[in-house]
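so i finally got all the pieces together for this one. its two components total, 534 residues if u count the protein bits. some of the lines might not be protein, just check the labels. i wanna see the whole assembly predicted at once instead of chain by chain like last time, that was a mess tbh
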Amino acid sequence: MRAYISIVKLRFMLLIQYRVAAIAGICTQFLFGFVRVMVIAAFYASSTAIQPMSYGQTVTYIWISQAFLGMLPWNGDSEIQEMISSGNVAYELCRPLDLYNHWFCRAFAQRTAPTLLRAIPLFIVTLFFLPEKYSMQPPNSLASFGAWILVTIGALMLSCAITNLFNISMLWTISGDGIKRLLPAVVMIFSGMTVPLPLFPTWMQPILRILPFSGLVDTPMRFYLGNIKPSSIVPFLFHQFIWTFVLILYGKWLISRGLKRVEVQGG
Amino acid sequence: MKNAIKLYLRYISVSIQSQMQYKASFIMMAIAHFAITFIDFIGVWVLFDRFGAIKGWNLPEIALFYGMIHMAFAIAEAGARGFDTFDSKVRTGEFDRILLRPRSLVLQIIGQEFQLMRIGRFTQGFIVLCWAMWSLNNSLSFIKVMLIIISILGGTFLFIGLFVLQATLSFWSVQSLEVVNMVTYGGVEIAQFPVTIYDSWFRKFFIFVVPLACVNYFPAMGILNKTDPLNSPAWLPWVSPIIGIVFFILALQVFKFGVRHYKSTGS
């Protein structure tokens, strides 16, 4: 267990060093968020019907989802991909560590370090330095804030499980390539990054609720905004937990199958 | 000049042949690229399903903007790959090798690759455009088709110009990519909607600095036969795509300036 914790620590320390990349990332996220906020503002101004979320809530949703983009499982670990294509993954197999757990720890660092670097400045700017029309709102209540923290942790674990599936799929070259390209799109749209999930048509809501991806962005957002009362946190935590559990089990099974067919070509 | 074009076509056919060696992979990547870029349109559709209109514009009109800009960007993505990966050429010294060759520099870079898989984005843009024209019951005169083609070409030149500027930045800085991504990929998202929905200062930037509106919005006014809410002259739709080509030429001058002052770091 200590080994895994030190892997997380080391990788985290390494990724936290990428400050310049973080600044670029902050600018990019800010621009994309700003464009989406302006588009949403135009849409809300064009309709008088009552919407599932108020304008202010939708703006907050967009900003926070942009801030936490790093935590979304939209890519795998590029170093792991290198290792697999070069064959160096064989070295990893010689270590006294379970490969799945090892990669999971790397994913944990990958999903936390860059996110922290980007989310904190973005929060500060969008919360305090934007005009009323475009700014982010504070959490609905202290209880909502606490609930949000809890489901964000749940979202993080779920994200690591999906990220690890990315990594494992690299063991198959052709399918891995396909998954590398398709999964980010699926994640983006079903998590609520592209468009906040509550704005999707009503008939789609049950499907979106069941899929694991809503647990990544939508669930934390609903609690932050007070859209869902903090007291109803248990079913949502359960949803995240069950999917994380299933995807971890699937990942472990997949990796054992994948490793059986790995042919290391010397060197 | 004729010789240069022949050489370029030669380069492209080599690039395409090499990509077609792996037919299955190419087809899969093209389909994946189609799906990923189509997600953008799904996002737009969801918002229209909920709100009905955006500041007086309806979905078929937006689909026109969407289709044109995605087709333009797809061609630019496919053709300007050499500029996209330019920073690594400078780093590795590959650029010096290219400089030593007895043919035009820009020709070498543009001829490096023609990414066929971008046909995914092109196709979905095309389908959306066709749907838009059909839904708008717009009489397709020869002149209108020409205007569409010219504005897509203007957009292509604009985006290639942006890629060229991105490449130029790599002469002076290592971390240039993200910044330009904001205007290329961000630009596509922005131009999906008519610039009238954005705030005045934002709109002016994308008319006069990065002239996205000139290759998308103003020609669309001509295609839709709509009086421009911005009160632009009636001849503008027919002339403004040229601005995209002008932008490209200016970008090339900046690039050549960068090349002239380039000091190699040695290989």
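The two ends of chain A are 32 Å apart (CA to CA).
Chain A touches chain B through 35 residues (CB under 8 Å).
anyway lmk what u think
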